[in-house]
Amino acid sequence: MGTGGRGDAGEGEGGPAAGHVEGDHAFLGHPRGLFTLFTTEMWERFSYYGMRAILLLYLTDTVANGGLGLDRTTGSAFVAIYGTSVYLLSVVGGWLADRVVGARRSVLYGGIVIAAGHVLLTVPGFGFSMAGIGLVAFGTGLLKPNVSSMVGELYARHDPRRDPGFAIFYMGINLGSFFSPFIVGSVQRAWGYHAGFSVAAVGMALALVFFVAGYRYLGTAGTDVPNPITPDDRPAVARLGALVLAGVVAATVLAALVGKGWGIETFIDAVSYLALATPAVLLVVMYRSPRVTAAERPRVLAYAPLFVASMLFWMIFEQAASTLTEFADDRTSLELFGISISPAFFQAVNPASVILLSPVFAWIWTRTHDRPPTAYKFVLGLTFAALSFVFLALASAALGDSLASPWILVTVYVIQTLGELCLSPVGIAATTLLAPRAFRGQAMALWFLSNAAGQAVTAQTIEATEGVSDTAYFGGIGAVGLVCACILLLLAPWVTRHIRRADELEGAASAGA
Ligand code: PHE
Question: Whole-angstrom Cα distance, residue 86 to residue 117?
């Protein structure tokens, strides 16, 4: 989930937040700026998920039908790597906002770049499509982490409306994600893929209109550059730039060597390697940094198993747009209550379930006083995700050659949503809590990286299992997920001790502030 954000980092210790306007309760008891960010992110997600709902179909449909004619394996791996790129680039978006342009301009520029990307996607042709997809990925990297962090800036640090504010924001995300598959899917069926993409372009244009029109409600949220580059920093920034470039080149060469040549697979592999290496490097840098205190160091270690669990969770969850869309297209009867449906429609099940089930989960966690502790909620999240695949494997085995009822996929998505609601909301909190003080700003990046790395694992798995039956594919991943959930369960007491210790340190620090 896209809540949390670097809002904590941008805000002075204990002081009022940048965008905080005293006594502003105009939007459901929340600051009016929340309405601005809610509508911006709602329309941005509308465009993102609408486009993603038909992306696999577009990539793999025949050229005669208006598609790009890729084979299923490459198409699915490409969709996964597109997701990887989006969240990997949010590291760049976070960095640019922190050090160069500030969150607000980052959202604005990101929005413009996304809209331009969708416009390119409305034009038929391989080159236009690839350029469009690249722009959407880059723009989303600029926009997504920063719009979340601005939500954090609307509230003073200890404002009790902060968490509910993020919950409302998350509803915005899911409202946009819920409506778009119907509209984009229907337009695509009637007028073709590029018409579908143009709906996404209109959605993104609306996001920009709401964002710019709502500037006046945002106070100063997102206007400052928290850690601007000084002349002294320039050599370090140049070194970082060179390092990133070297990483990209190394990953590309490695991918070319592994794949024995150049092609779309080279790109898929190179991005996968980068997405897996980046969080590993970040964790090692954090662990070894002299700016990290001795008390903080074990927390970095405690975060590692949570990171892996979260990566595996997103690895399964984000297959909605790739292998599960394939399953919808190839093996599912596309008729519900006598009405013929598009495979894209299934993408609405998760956001709908989030909207319906969030209040239930909020109620449960209040009743249990937020128990079980975070690590156990991660175990639950991963277990649900793995079970959804085990269920699909069994259903697929029972099917034989006949088509699956659409309710099978609906059930898969509902089970995954149960997992999402266990893992996602606490994930961000754990990320910010376990990150050492010197790395607060990068903690959010780490959270997005767990999603990016998860989808990289997906892309690699899809390529490595070409020709494997659905039962073996989903069953195998489900089984690995369950085994990892068991390992995390064994580690959970140890992780929990470290989080408690972090809690105490936080308490001591804020009492002293
Ligand atoms: N539905 C969530 C969103 O779009 C999925 C997500 C989770 C994305 C975590 C990024 C990180 O915000």
Answer: 13
CA–CA separation, 317 vs 326, rounded Å?
Answer: 15
| The Cα angle at residue 59 between residues 58 and 63, in degrees rounded to 5 | 80
The pLDDT of residue 505 is 67
pLDDT at 21: 64
CA 13, CA 278: separation in Å to the nearest integer? 29
The Å distance, Cα 149 to ligand 1 centre, comes to 14
State which ligand 1 atom lies nearest to the alpha carbon of 448: 11
Q: Is 162 in the pocket of ligand 1 (CB under 6 A)?
A: no
Residue 18 has pLDDT above 70, yes or no: no
Closest CA to 306 of 122, 128, 140, 494: 494
Domain with CATH 1.20.1250.20 in the chain: 22-228, 291-513
Least confident stretch, 152-166, 190-204, 210-224, 358-372: 152-166
* DSSP secondary structure letters along 264-283: HHHHHHHHHHHHHHHHHHHH
Asked if residue 4 has pLDDT above 50, the reply is: no
pLDDT of residue 426: 84
Q: 406 pLDDT band (50/70/90 cuts)?
A: very high
Ligand 1 pocket check: which of 1, 313, 455 to mutate, most ligand atoms within 8 Å of Cβ? 1
Tokens of 19: 């965008």
Q: Measured in angstroms, how far is the CA atom of residue 116 from the centroid of ligand 1?
A: 22
Q: Which one of 2.30.40.10, 1.20.1250.20, 1.25.40.10, 3.10.290.10 gives the CATH number of domain 291-513?
A: 1.20.1250.20
pLDDT confidence of residue 9: 37
Q: What is the 263 CA–ligand 1 centroid distance (Å)?
A: 29
- Under CATH, what is the fold of the domain 22-228? Growth Hormone; Chain: A; (1.20.1250)
pTM: 0.90
Please list the alpha-helical segments (H only) found in 98-213: 102-121, 126-153, 162-191, 193-213
Place of tokens 């996929």: 409
- Residue 174, number of CB atoms within 10 A of its CB: 23
Task: Dump pLDDT digits (tens) for 337-346.
Answer: 888 899 999 9
Give the atom of ligand 1 at the shortest distance from the alpha carbon of 427: 9
Task: Say how many CA atoms lie within 13 Å of 143 toward its Cβ.
Answer: 28
Average pLDDT over residues 130-154: 92
Whether 12 has a pLDDT exceeding 60, the answer reads no
